[in-house]
């Protein structure tokens, strides 16, 4: 179980780093307006086509986001698992009360303990 959680955590970290990189590589919506007036570079257009880079990056980001979400759900599930008792009964885990000493009524000692410090004056009971 511990190995599975380690693998899920490693995949989640790699997916998060990949998403950060892909999101930073994408152009904002305002960048398309600048590219229409000749301000855009032609490096990505030669590799993916005019709109191919936007589709490739956005689809890759969606895939990594899905992997990240699946790893998060898996880690949450395995992190909340508790070991169960052999029979699964809740009543078997209740502590058993300690028996009272013989001769004591209802678990109360036969002679009450003094309530004052030693050497203090005793006040008679009324």
Automatic annotation (TrEMBL):
Keywords: Cell membrane, Membrane, Protein transport, Translocation, Transmembrane, Transmembrane helix, Transport. It is found in: Cell membrane. It is a multi-pass membrane protein. It holds the Pfam family SecG. Belongs to the SecG family. This is Protein-export membrane protein SecG. Residues 105-120 have a biased composition (Low complexity).
